[in-house]
Design goal:
The protein is mainly alpha-helical. It has 7 helices and 2 strands; from the N terminus they run αααααββαα. Helix 4 (100-107) crosses helix 5 (111-123). The two termini are 38 Å apart.
């Protein structure tokens, strides 16, 4: 089980707070600064920003990079290979039966990746296919009883890992961290992730090799 969740994706398909206190031995509280008022329109992805916004965002980026390194090191040590299971099963559990194309759009993954993972989940009895009543040529995917049990197990493991890291934080800090992380996920996803995952988006040319 992944002890933390990255800022842009929850391994189980559900929103959850993350922390690095347990992995580093230090506790990081929330930081207040010059933030835009709630509900204010966000500038576009290529807009110029004041120096203080850039500097404070750089500090956030440094911590996100550190979190990703911690998660990567943990995955390598425990040989975590269930990320795809958790993501797809979590979304099917939360959103109900859906076609593979809709699941790919919901999880921001390529259809080929989703199809391959779903085939494995079906073979292991975690997901079942049923005819789509609106289109007999298609199939709806839904978790089996075994799949639902797996989701509950994944979530319990995730929540325990996060509780280990956040137990020493004041309750107010935990709630505020969850609120701010959800806000960041929403804004980052809308500005930078969903536009490039939209149907018809053309990927830019690869960077030249040095």
């Amino acid at each position: 089980m992944d002890p933390t969740a990255t800022a842009t994706a929850d391994p189980t398909g559900t929103a959850g707070a993350t922390g690095t206190a347990g992995a580093t031995g230090t506790t990081t509280g929330t930081t207040t600064g010059s933030t835009a008022p709630t509900g204010a329109a966000s500038p576009g992805p290529d807009a110029a920003h004041p120096a203080d916004v850039v500097m404070e965002s750089a500090a956030v980026g440094d911590e996100m990079a550190r979190l990703m390194r911690l998660v990567g090191a943990w995955k390598q040590r425990v040989r975590d290979e269930g990320w795809g299971d958790r993501l797809l099963l979590g979304r099917l559990t939360e959103g109900g039966p859906r076609r593979a194309t809709d699941l790919a759009a919901d999880t921001l993954l390529d259809l080929s990746t989703v199809s391959r993972q779903i085939r494995s989940l079906v073979e292991r009895g975690l997901v079942e296919r049923r005819p789509d009543p609106e289109d007999g040529r298609g199939a709806l995917l839904s978790p089996t009883g075994q799949g639902l049990a797996a989701v509950e197990r994944y979530r319990a493991q995730r929540d325990q890992k996060l509780a280990d890291a956040l137990a020493s934080w004041p309750s107010r800090d935990r709630r505020e961290f969850g609120r701010l992380l959800a806000r960041f996920n929403d804004d980052f996803g809308e500005l930078h992730v969903r536009p490039v995952c939209a149907p018809g988006h053309q990927q830019g040319p690869a960077a030249p090799r040095p």
